[in-house]
Every structure is written in C-alpha cells, then in structure tokens.
Amino acid sequence: MTASTSPETLSVLDRPNSYIGKVVPRPNLERLLQGRGLYVSDMELPRMAHVVFLRSPHAHARIVSIDAAAAKQMQGVIAVVSGTELAAVITPWVGVLTHLKGLKSAPQHAIALDRVCWQGEAVAAVVATSRAVAEDAAELVAVDYKELEAVTDMRTALDPATPVIHPSLGDNLAFERNLDAGAVDAAFADSDAVVEAEFVFGRHTGVTLEPRAVVADWNAAEARLTIYQGTQAPHMVQNIAALHLGLEESQVRVVCKDVGGSFGIKVHIYADEMAVYALSKLLRRPIKFVADRVESFNTDIHARDHRCKGRIGVKRDGTITAFEIDDLTGIGPYSMYPRTSAIEANQVVNLVGGPYATKHYRARARVVFQNKNVMCQYRAVGHPIACSVTEGLVDLAALRIGMDPVEIRRRNLIADDAYPCASPSGLKFEQLSHHAALNKLIGMMDYDALRAEQAALRKRNIHRGIGIASFIEVTNPSAAFYGVGGARISSQDGVAVRLDAQGSVICQTSITEQGQGSESLTAQIVGSVLGVSMARVRVILGDTDNTPYGGGTWASRGAGIGGEAALQAAKVLRRNILDVAAAILQASPAELDIANNAVVNAEDGAVRIELRELARIVYFRPDTLPPGIQPELMATRHFVPREYPFAFTNGVQAAWIEVDTDTGFVKLLRHWVVEDCGTIINPQLVDEQIRGGVVQGLGAALFEKCIYDERGQLTNANMADYLVPMSGEMPDIDIGHVISPTLETELGAKGAGEAGTAAAAAAVANAANDALRPFGVIITEIPLTPQVILTALGRI
Amino acid sequence: MTIPLPISLQVNGERVDAQVLPRLNLADFLREHLKLTGTHVGCEHGVCGACTVRVNGEIVRSCLMLAAQTHGASIETIEGLSDSGEIADLQAAFGDRNALQCGFCTPGMLVAAQDLLKQEAEPDRERIREHLSGNYCRCTGYQAIVDAVEATARARRERNP
Question: How far apart are alpha carbons B132 and B145 in whole angstroms?
Fold first, then answer.
C-alpha cells in the first residue's frame, strides 16, 4: 500500500463513496415539505401568555404619560408593562465595539423610557392570554406624546442647524472612517480621464417570510431561562440575555428550531426580544412574541441606505489608476446591538476596488444617526454598495475611453497568478480567480452573440443591455470581525460526533440551520470521513445545552468553519473506531478502513466487522475487549481560521435585461454567475444559495425600498406596497464555478451565502445603463423603478 | 359581534365542530384551534401566499377568509394533502430539486402548485411562474420551484399519457 492511498492519508475529498461534491438531498426536508416543521411561531407552552407591543406612531417624541388603567381592566389581560417598570429587570446596552474606533451610540432600553426615537419603537408591553386580547387591550392604552423634530435626511444630519438626537453624544455622527492608500492625487493627475458619480441606494429590509418570533420561558424554580428563538447565533443570544438579566450564561438556554428565513435579520438581538426575555422573568411564565408584518417593516433591521460619491481615474489604454469614495449612511437612532451598525460602512471602505490591481485608493465613510428604524447587517453586508460603486465606476470609465466593459476588466482585474496579495485597504487574498471566472462567464453567456443581438434589436427600437460585475466576498470570518472589538460573538465552532449503540452517528454542531443546508453539509462531511451512510448520521444543532460552543451560521461561515470542525472531529472518531476494531480483530489500525457502515480491510475492502456490531461490543460487552482498551466513541473538535482574517471568494455576474423606454419597466431576461467558493460540498446547495442571493439582489435593484416621508413615517410598511421579487418577474439564473480551495483548512471550503447578493444589483444597473446608452443617460440610483428610469429619460 | 358562532366543517376529511368568534380568520382557526401549524402566516393580508389552503377544491388565502364562512365546507391543508399522498410526487420533486430552503413558504407553494397541475397538464415555465406569482419565497429565487413543478407535470404526463 502506498502512502497516497492509505486510508489515514487519503483526503476526505478523495475517499471512495465520499458525499463531498455530490448532490444529495437535505436530511431535514420531509418535515418541512409536510408542513410539520416547528417554527417558533408554531410553539405553545403551558401557561404561555402573548405579548403585543404598543409602538410609537411618531419618529421622535417625548413620552409625557402612559395611561394603561382601562387596558389592565380588560378580561384576559395579565399585565401592561412600561419601559421604566421593565428596566428593573433588564439593563440597557450600547451598541459599540472597540475595533471600530470612535463609534458611539446612546444607551438603548428594551422599551423606551421617556422618549421614542423612531416610528415603531416600543413604548409599552401588553401581555394577555391571547394575541387578540393583547391587541384589543393595546388599543386602550393612552399615551400622551410631545412630538420632537425628527432627523430624517442623512445629508443634513450633521448640519449645525439639525437637532442632535442624543445630546450627550455631542453630534449625530456615529462613526467615521478615513483611508488613504497609495498616492491617490498623483494617480488621478496621471490619468487621461477622471469620472465621478454619486450612487444612491434605497433603504431596504429582509422581509423574512416568518416574522421575528421568540418564546421566553423563565422557570423560577430552576432559576433558568429558556429562549426559543429563530436566531442564527444561539450562543450570542445566550450571552447577551444573561448579561442584561443579571444571570450566568449557565442560567440561559437558547433553542433554535426551524427558522422561517433569516438572511441576517435574525442575527441581531432586538429591543423587543430583550423585552420578551425580561417579561418572562418579571411575570414568571412563558411569554410569546411574534411580530406582525407591519412590525416587521418598522422594526426588523433595515440596510443599505447609502449615498456614495465615487471617482475613478483611467488611462487611454484602460488602466485604472485610482478609486476614491465618500460614503454616507444613516443608521437610525441607535447602533444595533451587539454587532453594531458601523459594519456596513466599514465593509464598503474595505471592499471598494477590491477586485482590481490599482494600489491607489482613498475613502471616507460617515455613519449618522436619524429618527428612522435601525439599520444593521443584512445578507452581503456592504458588498452590494461596494460592488455597485466599483463596477458602476469601471463601466463609466470604459464608456469614457470607448472600451468594452469586458476588456477594461481584463486589463485591471488582479492576475490569477498574483496571489497571495493584499488590497489597498489591507484585505489579504489567499487565492482568487477573477480572470478564470470572467472567461468562464463570457463563454456561458456567449457575450459576442449577445452583443450582436443587442445591436440588431436596437435597430428595431428594442433596448437591451448587458451588465457585468466582478466581486469579492468576505467569508469564514475569524475573530477579526467581532471578537477583537470586544463582542462575545464566537468566531470558532465546535462539532461533537459519536457512534451510538447501533452504529449510527450523532453529530452536534454549533452552526445553525436556516435553510442553507447546514445539517446536510455536516452529515455529508461526517458520513464521508467516517464511511457511514448519510441516512445514519443525525445532526443536532440550535441548542446551547446540546451543542458545542460556537458562532452559528452567518457571514458565510457555516460550511467553511463548522464544516472543518466536523471534518476534524470525524477524523478523530474514525481513528478511535479503527483502534477499537483493531483490538477486536487483532489487526493493525492501518490495515483497516471504514466503508458502508462497516470496518473493512483497507487492501481489498472485505467486511471485517459491522459498526453496529462494534458498537454492541463496546457499549454492552466491554468485558470481552482486551485489557487496557478504553474505547472513545465520541470526539469533539473546534476550528477557527487563524492565518487569514477572512477567506475571500470571488466571482462575476452578468445581467441581460430589456428596458421599456415608454413605461420605464425593466425586464430581466437572463442572469449568469460564476463563483469561486473553493471546495464545493454540495453543488446543488451552493447553486441554490447563489440563486436565492441573486434574487435578493435583484429585489434591491428593481423593487425594494422603505419609503420614509420627511417626518420619519414609513409609508409602505406592508407587503402590498413594499415590493419584493415574485416568481413572475424573476429570470432563470445560470451558474458556473471556478474552484480555488483555501489551503487554511483540510476541507478547503469558503462561503457562498452572500455572493449572489453581492453583485446582482450592480450587474443590473450596469445593464440598464448599457441599454440606455443611445439616450445618453446614466442612472446611478437603485431601485431602478419606472419613475427613476422615466425621470432620467426626461419623460416625466 | 363577540358571540361565538357554531360551525361544522370537514378538515382533511375529519368532521370538526367548533365555536368561533366572528372575527377569527381561517388561518388562525387552523393553527390555533386545530393545531394544524403547517398553514403559515406571513403577511396577514393576502399577499404572501404562505397561508394558502384548499376550500371546497379551490385554493384560498386562509388569512382572508373568516372561520365562520367555512361552515359546511371541506378544507384541505398541507397536512391532509401530505397524508392522502395526493402531492407525494410534487413533494419529492421539491426535495430532489432543493426547491425549499427555510420551508416557510413551502406548504402554500405546494398547494398553489398542485392547483395548477390539476388544471393544466402541460404548463410551461412562464405559466408556472405566473400561477405561483402570488406566493412569496425569499430563499430560493424561484427557479428550483419552477423546475420541480415542471418536472412533476412531465412525470405525471408520462404516467398518464
């Protein structure tokens, strides 16, 4: 036997019967297909009461008085609790992290004390035996408000004449970051052309189909709080709940069953959720909160409300000389807790220009407070802004010098053999594949044929456009993301695997499942390493009492970090199993392998002992084992990336669209993505993550916008007026891959959860401008509504 | 208005007798009274399609119908359609194609898709997209769902040419 074929040295990726790289069905689908999942909104507990929050109708107001006497008289009402009353149970928080230098925010309470700072902030909790009764009672609570001037326009938030929302902070500036890398002024001076534009992004939100929901159950006898919540990060929730309720973490258990969509919306901890934990402790009974859709729009974090001025310098030969941006974003009245609301702007600074070779880059980002709903991290945090600005500028530069958009990218994307290298903003790239990805994309879409079709249709007054957008994506974040700033948000994950008494495998992982396929990828890895069929691997996740400690699933980290922990834990268990088998069989472990649920001869694959039989002996007849053998049929391993703060991925997208210049409507005809996420564990899951992500980006490109009026009122807080992508308008999406595994892990997987969202809007916006080229019109605002397009065309 | 009304109906083939407040909608009745939690509530105003069920053979948004209106009706929910086996092939196609991620839209999506497949043997992709355009899915981007419905239509045609 040669070393390369030894089972001990054979990579999991190459083992016979490996599930890695294969399309296998997700193990948890049947219950969801039959409507027999368990979402938090489905849960009921004995003595459970329901809370409804009375919410401020004003964007900014002083609470003069709250009269709950009539509500408390209503049959079925258990309690009406004000912010002041609840503050006796739960402490306030400030959403800052030390690595975001200068970031400031004001103390935020679970329920407002004497002032409300956005329309939708809770002013009282009404707890009753049913949701309907609580809603009826909430209508009887009389709140006297004194309206204050609302700060709504981010552009004037820093003006001296604008009121300061939190006087103790001195101004409305939450965070500012400046970066100046290379010699930007000289690079612009050396350019043949410098192009500028202001890019405007609509504030939008996640619209998870299941609204945020939590059931909190304080057991006074155990002095223990169990929180059932659809969260991406159970241990983070455990830490924060304990911290603010004055408990030890061991007194808080967080359980996460099925989650009806998350996308970053449910990675945060909201004030109303804190209130539910506190209410359960205060009232000593289970309390359930399920946001309704209006509440979701008014209180689920919003994202992407940015205005970003950009400049690009270019030479006649297409060389990009420099990028410069000045980004402004408004985050609502508080920096969100505990991840903060400065991360998106920070990411924009990090990511602009990221795919390109130029070393000259200057950036300023300012984050301001406003009296609107809070903004924070939502799928692809910062990426869509950075990508739209970068790719929009690249197209403008190409247009100015008369170069094809593909050609200018070919001349400026970082060469595929230039790695490892770093970006001007200091991002470390291990191995990216921009050129290979672009070449593959051009082939998939048949670029030249599309250009010919475009030209032919133009003669018939049909205006189609092609948009290209290259991108990089942050995945597998290390402690650099949150931990270094003082947040108790784990960047490591753990997996425990054990062989049960019938030779099946139970696997507990700290990553979580919101539909991405975390269970599946874990079972695929564990099954492959152990030589056990996936049907015999059961994965347990989403329970702080029953999984190792870890970060959870967010920032495209589940497969890369949790998957590696699973691989390493399974390797240890495999070794332990072979040690026991060798003792039973009087063989050497090196002569043995595990395949198809049995220990086999490594040489010829002949079955030596079924795992079921091995487990029977270990658990029930250990007396028959040789002396001195103590089998360990459970193994735990943890993993966190240490070498690279983030495992960057890359890719490129293309959109083919038609703009109706009479109506302003955009029709999405086709969309292509080539992505490089390293090792692919399950191609179907990766592709569907990308497709779903693209469609979220397409929503941002064409439809989605939280429309506030000048008084800070959200005017479209329902699903009829806030438009989301539906099946009728969405295109089919073709996906291709380039594979550059990260060498930091044995698995080699990077994340793929945000790639789709990162560049979809940029591709569509570039396509729209390409389509409108004959009209001499450039649009740098999304969503590209008919109104925006017709206004640009001068038709309205 | 607050006096409960008696209703008798069939739910998934079982007789149900209940007293319901006039304001109770069918979705809440199914979920809270009958504990049939496969019918999901997403928007509560008839836009998202998560609460789609079948009433007397027609699909309806159960958040837009009052429980009191269902007296004498026959209702089928995702649980009933699963247990009868009527949509087993469609469910399998959704699973094979990973046409669901979080699964919250899935019951409504399946009920709506089956409605189309009962009406039309050969819906093309555009027709499938149109018929499902009242069912919101945030996870998949819809393509996998369209693929699964298309594959089911094809398989049914091959079984019953």
Answer: 9
In A9-150 the beta strands, taken as DSSP E runs, fall at 49-55, 61-67, 77-82, 115-116, 122-128, 142-147
Q: Which of B45, B60, B81 is the last residue of a domain?
A: B81
DSSP element (H, E) containing A669: strand A666-676
Condensed to tens digits (0 to 9), the pLDDT of residues A164-210 reads 999 999 999 999 999 999 999 999 999 999 999 999 999 999 999 99
Alpha helices in A3-65 (DSSP H): 29-33
| A210 → closest Cβ in B31, B82, B104 | B104
Q: Which domain holds residue B118?
A: 87-159
Instruction: Answer whether B137 touches A (CB < 8 Å).
Output: yes
Distance CA A408, CA A356 (A): 11
Task: For residue A100, give the CATH number of its domain.
Answer: 3.90.1170.50
Classify each residue of A94-125 as buried b or exposed e, where b means 16 or more C-beta atoms within 10 Å of its C-beta. Answer: ebbbebbeebbbbebbbbbbebbbbbbbbbbb
Contact at CB, A691 and B144, closer than 8 angstroms: yes
In the listed set B81, B105, B121, which residue is the last one of a domain according to the structure?
A: B81
Q: Which of A316, A327, A329, A317 has the alpha carbon at shortest distance from A353?
A: A327
Residues 6+ apart with CB under 8 A from A492: A549, A550, A551, A561, A565, A638, A639, A640
The number of folded domains in chain B is: 2
Q: Which residue of A has its CA nearest to B91?
A: A33
Left, alpha or beta for A505 (phi > 0: left; psi -120 to 50: alpha)? beta
What interface predicted TM-score (ipTM) does this complex get? 0.98
Asked if B107 is an interface residue toward chain A (Cβ–Cβ < 8 A), one would say yes
